[in-house]
Write a structure and sequence with these properties.
single chain, five-stranded parallel sheet, two-stranded antiparallel ribbon, 7 strands
C-alpha cells in the first residue's frame, strides 16, 4: 500500500534521479516536477527518464517569465549580491521553483513534497520556507536529513554506484562529480574537488558562462 504521493523537485541529475527511485523503494507514489528557468536542458529526454524510473506523473513547467519578473528583477533592484560577487542566481531560483511545486502538490492532492538539497546548506531553507508559507500542512521529505538515506549514501560516489545498480542514467562521473545549477541568471557548480580549498576554482572541462 502506498504511503502517499510526493511531488519531487526534479532536475534529472544524480541526486534527484536517485531520490526518485529511493522514494519509490520507501513506498511512495512520486510525481516529478521540473522547472524551466532557462537552463540548457533536453526536457523531452528528462520527461522520458523520469517516466522510465517510475514517476507516476511528470510536470515540466515554463517559469522563465515569472522567474525574471518576480525574482530576478527584485533581486537586481535590491542589489542582492553576496560577498561583492555572487549574484544569488541559484538562491533566488529556489523560491520560484518551490512556489510552483506546492501549487502542483495542492492540485494533485499530494501530502508530501521533496527536494534534493543537502542537510547542511541554505537551499533546504529556501525550498522549505516557501513550501510551508504557501502550503502549511504539507509534509517535507528531505532525504539528506534522513539517517536511513545519508547513512546509506555517504556522498556522490555512493549515489553513482546506486545509479549504476538500478540502471539510472546520470550526467556525472567520478572524474567530474560536481553538480551544476543553471538558469537565466547564471550557472553554479558544487561538490567533489570543488570543495577542496587546495584545488583551483575552475577545473579543466568546466564550462563558465563568460
Amino acid at each position: 500500500m502506498s504511503k502517499g504521493t510526493v511531488v519531487l523537485a526534479y532536475s534529472g541529475g544524480l541526486d534527484t534521479s536517485c531520490i526518485l527511485v529511493w522514494l519509490k523503494e520507501q513506498g511512495y507514489d512520486v510525481i516529478t516536477f521540473l522547472a524551466n528557468i532557462g537552463q540548457d536542458e533536453d526536457f523531452e529526454a528528462a520527461q522520458k527518464k523520469a517516466e522510465s524510473l517510475g514517476a507516476k506523473k511528470v510536470f515540466i513547467e515554463d517559469l522563465r517569465s515569472e522567474f525574471v519578473e518576480d525574482f530576478i528583477w527584485p533581486a537586481v533592484q535590491a542589489n542582492a549580491v553576496y560577498e561583492d560577487r555572487y549574484l544569488l542566481g541559484t538562491a533566488v531560483a529556489r523560491p520560484c521553483i518551490g512556489r510552483r511545486q506546492v501549487e502542483i502538490a495542492r492540485r494533485e492532492g499530494a501530502q508530501f513534497v521533496s527536494h534534493g538539497a543537502t542537510g547542511k546548506g541554505n537551499d533546504q531553507i529556501r525550498f522549505e520556507l516557501t513550501c510551508y508559507a504557501l502550503y502549511p500542512e504539507v509534509k517535507i521529505i528531505a532525504p539528506w536529513r534522513i539517517p536511513e538515506f545519508y547513512n546509506r549514501f555517504k556522498g556522490r560516489i555512493d549515489l553513482m554506484d546506486y545509479a549504476e545498480k538500478h540502471g539510472i542514467p546520470v550526467p556525472v562521473t567520478p572524474r567530474a562529480p560536481w553538480s551544476m545549477d543553471a538558469n537565466l541568471m547564471h550557472i553554479s557548480y558544487e561538490s567533489g574537488i570543488l570543495e577542496n580549498p587546495k584545488v583551483r576554482p575552475v577545473p579543466k572541462g568546466m564550462t563558465l558562462p563568460f
